[in-house]
Design brief:
- It is a single chain.
- The chain is an alpha+beta fold.
- It has one domain (about 5-95): GMP Synthetase, Chain A, domain 3 (2-Layer Sandwich), CATH 3.30.300.
- The protein is about 45% helix and about 25% strand.
Length: about 100
């Protein structure tokens, strides 16, 4: 398995496990940032969409904090930049 693919799989697995997520979509945007300082240091640029009941009643910032906490060491080592969309299952069913 290639390193970029392994990273996206690691991100997906960690979010599914830690947030009991119903849906996790991970997009590796690192190629769009080639030459960027973070890319040269080995950290990737990713977009995630996470659907979890754990976000119910939380502000957007609080939900994003849960994502950062769930990713833990990946945020220090494998991820340079993260764009995220956090939704409850109800929000997802209504079209996000």
């Amino acid at each position: 398995m290639s390193r970029p693919r392994q990273r996206t799989d690691d991100i997906r697995a960690r979010l599914e496990r830690e947030l009991d997520a119903e849906l996790v979509e991970v997009t590796d945007d690192s190629a769009r940032h080639a030459g960027h300082a973070g890319a040269s240091e080995g950290g990737g640029h990713y977009r995630v969409c996470v659907v979890s009941a754990r976000f119910a009643g939380l502000s957007r910032v609080a939900a994003q904090r849960l994502v950062y906490e769930a990713l833990g060491s990946l945020m220090r080592d494998a991820i340079h930049a993260l764009e995220m969309r956090t939704l409850t299952p109800e929000q997802w069913r209504r079209g996000g």
